[in-house]
Amino acid sequence: MNAVARPDARPDLHRPGVGAVLVSTWRVGTPERQRAAVEAVRAAWESRAWPDLGLLSYSVAVGTDGDTLLHYSQWTEQQAYDDFVRTHRDDRNAEIDAAVPGIERVELRRYAPIHRSAVRGGTGTGELPGVVVIVEADFDGPATGRREDWVDGVFTALDEDAAAGLVSGGISGQFHLSVDGGRVLNYAEWESEQAHEEWLADDARQSEAWKRVHHHPGLTGGRMRRYTPALSLGAGV
Questions:
Q1: Cα Rg of the chain (Å, integer)
Q2: Are 131 and 199 in contact (CB under 8 A)?
Q3: Are 117 and 173 in contact (CB under 8 A)?
Q4: Pick from 45, 54, 57: which is nearest to 79 by CA?
């Protein structure tokens, strides 16, 4: 089986059988090199057999910063990724690097499957996002329950926003806990970059619920980046 691209360029975030998620960031420098890198990834993967080692999907999104790429892959288990690295990754990366020299592979993190999620309307959605917002929250260690409590606090704040009609542009949010215990990642789909910017600018961000989120015990920092879906690959039939 060869790799095939999903027509909507996004992963099935709630597909069954996911036991591990890998998220990495590349820095490539310019919008032109972003586009070239995505096409190099497509070529390197579609020209080879799908590595049937527990890889369920591999998706790439392009940063609105004109520099970064986000890689989001779904696996049956963490060991499946290690097997892929040992047997299949190097030749793909070599071809991509030959096409786009100088890629900086900034970070790769291992995450457990989705810990908690919300979808507009409460059920699955076929809405296609105009932008994916990646929020990373860092903690000072794997203290029991801190990250889970933080995620619950975010949901409390979002519920208050929803009751006030303030999240009309949000489509979904998926929260992952890193395997190393130090991070929460929210993979959030929005209608557009403008909708997300308007939400961030609203005075509701100063509510008591959001203040508790921003000053949660153990929280040491965080960051937010926006991406547009570019490519999502899976095994052909």
A1: 18
A2: no
A3: yes
A4: 54
pLDDT digits (tens, 9 = 90+) for 7-20: 899 999 999 999 99
Q: So what's the pLDDT on residue 201?
A: 87
Mutual orientation of helices 31-46 and 89-99 as an angle, nearest 10°? 140
The answer to whether the Cα torsion of 60, 48, 98, 86 is positive or negative is positive
Strand 3-5 to strand 219-235: parallel, antiparallel, or no bridges (unpaired)?
antiparallel
Alpha-carbon distance 163 to 140, whole Å?
32
User: DSSP alpha helices (H): ranges in the chain?
Assistant: 31-46, 78-87, 89-99, 146-163, 193-201, 208-214
For 24-52, b where at least 16 C-beta lie within 10 A, e where not — what string? ebbbbeeeebbeebbebbbebbeeeebbe
- Dist. CA 140–CA 176, nearest whole Å: 17
Judge if pTM exceeds 0.70: yes
